[in-house]
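Weekend entry, working from home. Most of the wet-lab plans are on hold until the incubator is repaired, so I used the time to fold the two sequences that have been sitting in the queue since the last round of cloning. Logging both here for the record. First:
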Amino acid sequence: GSVMAAAESVDAYLEYHRIVGDDDGGKLFTPAEFEAYKKRVAPMRINNRLYVSWGVPGANLDCILIGPETLCLCNHRYKGHQTDFERVDSGASARIKCRSQGCRCAQFQYIPRLHGNQMVRCSCKHQAEDHSVTRPYKCGRCPCSAFANTATCGCGHRNCDHATLVETRSEREARGQPVENLGAGAEPCIYAAMGGITHFSSLADGSSRLDALAGERQNQSVLDVDSVADRTAPPLPAAAAKSRRMTEAEEMAFYEKRYQERRKAEARGGGGGGSKRISAAVVANAPPLWAMEQLQLLESPDAAAEDVGGQRALPRAGCAAGADSRRMASAARAAAAAA
């Protein structure tokens, strides 16, 4: 009836907005204009897509994968920058400049966020907004010659050791990183400004993310198995020691099932404690991203989640409590380390 028609209209608009973004100037394209627009941008987004990430050069770990809503140092989102190119020779040669009127930003530059959209401060103690939006991002309130934040990222390196990396498909494939479309579906993704987002797990930060399509253990350099695995813990099933290639549909189904199980556990246990009733076997056989989350929930069930890079991050680890929690934490650590 009318409800179904309204729902279909909303879905159609969301699909339209994901493809067009702000390119319509606030005035909806007619059906004919929309088809012509898709025909024009589709080849660029399929053949000349730029994969944008933030990480330590040479570490082969993408700490943050840039998506349409990720904010730049200029305080405008990635989708507000130039992301469609008719020709791209290399990621380094691409100029992802801001398209907002009056903005002087000539290249997208990711800056870590704290809570919400608050940027981290420079080591000169001034806000990112006090710095220039062009290289080398000098401070306008002191002699500081470049924006640099020395806080430690989840990967173990300082934020100032990171850089915004722009790659073509071939360059990213050469690093062994995923380039497939969302869900690895048959139809190419032509959504605007997808950047480095290739999979559902791309929304997590690099230190806790399972990139199911990556061909290697990306976090080996920052996650020492001997330092986090409890050597006294019983051996885990072999399934926990291998990477899992999951489609978007499989990931969504897994997380929906996990959510429903958590709701039932909370209803039985009366609150957040229900999550501690999940068995070690379930943790061991789950994707490492989920195992890591369970580890952190077990160690700090009341910790508040932080918002990093415009995405929800997992809670910080705290102190373990109780023998059951310690056994579960050990299983989760081993499962995450084995990925």
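Second, folded right after the first finished:
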Amino acid sequence: MERLDYVGLITVAYFLVCGGPFGIEYLVIHGGPLYTLVGLVVVPLVWSIPQAVMTVDMSLTHSVNGGYIVWIQRILGKRAAWLAAANGISSNLIDLALYPTLFAEYTSSLIGEQYSPALKFIVIFVGTLLNVLGLRTVSFVSLVIMIFVFSPFALAFLAEFREIITLPSVFAQGPPTPQPAAFMSAFMWLYNGWDSLGIIIEELAVTPDMLIRACGVVLILVTLTYLVPLLVIVRLHPDLTTWYPGCLIVFLSDASTFLANCAIFATCAGQLGLFNTGLSTTSRAVAALAGQSNSPGTWLLGCLVQPDTVPLRAIFAVSGVVLLLTAADFTALVEANMTLCAIKLLFQYTAYLASRAETVEKQRAIKFPHTLWGAILLAFPTIVLLCALLALSTWTTVLLCLFLNLLAGLILYADSFMSVS
């Protein structure tokens, strides 16, 4: 089995969580630049760090591919694992559909909207091909893209630095179209994905200390990836009423046509990087669910199980579903994605706290937090945010999630009936 080294881990983790600044327009449009700036400080503390700590702890304690599906099945049972997987994989599928959509949104604004379907297909096709070649190929391509994505905005930041430091009054503006639920969903989405590292834990050639340090490096890189373009674009276009989804590249052309052209390619590369790494972990999650013993996924998804390291059948199946989902509305996808993800994360935190209550401290791979109460305090802010996100969900999203979980429950019932028969 090919394993990722420290640099490979950082590049894959970066694209699992972030992958570029494209999407911060939604934060400014729905929350305003000031709350976006505050969020860049607060969200990593109350959302990212607890997820990263939980993921490292549980991944090293249950060090097999499959991540949260394995943790939850071992601690809470197969039914909880199935429901968590149904919400988590559905969230991942929607998440993957966002990247071809963003790719087409940015690019078609320059070459014409009639090419949007073809552009979406190109992202899915190339990402699928790279995943077929293996995780190390995914990692190498991610490293190249990571450097390329950040460069145009870093150069623009240096060019506009003197003007940027005089921006406080601009940040006092309110959002053009305030939508708290959309703002919260978008922010969580932009910092989400840490738990996916557990899905590929067997394919990482790193020590526990290296894994922890890598998460810290990625968190800093992600925050800078959002902060620098935010400062640059607010400086170039302080009138927030002119902002719209996909405006970053067009606005960057005010600083430099060359940088804007570079940003076009960076956009394409960034969305490909996000899709590329997301497909690698989602396909492995599907394969892990299909391979779990005594699970509904065994008979329902059994055809996707393969002895090979690269889960080819799962990769093709996931890519096909994503292609269909790219026809949906972007904003609706983001909210549905994060609502489903919130349900999955609640299952994960329940399993994490149950594990901390049952496991002797000296048996754990990492010793932070030192006590069960420390773990509860660490998880509490995130759990509050998850509950708030669920409470703010639109009725359309609630009904969609309810339907999905009822369907997952019916499959569980059918599995129980078949087992008895």
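Plan for Monday: verify the second prediction. DSSP finds 17 helices and no strands in the chain.
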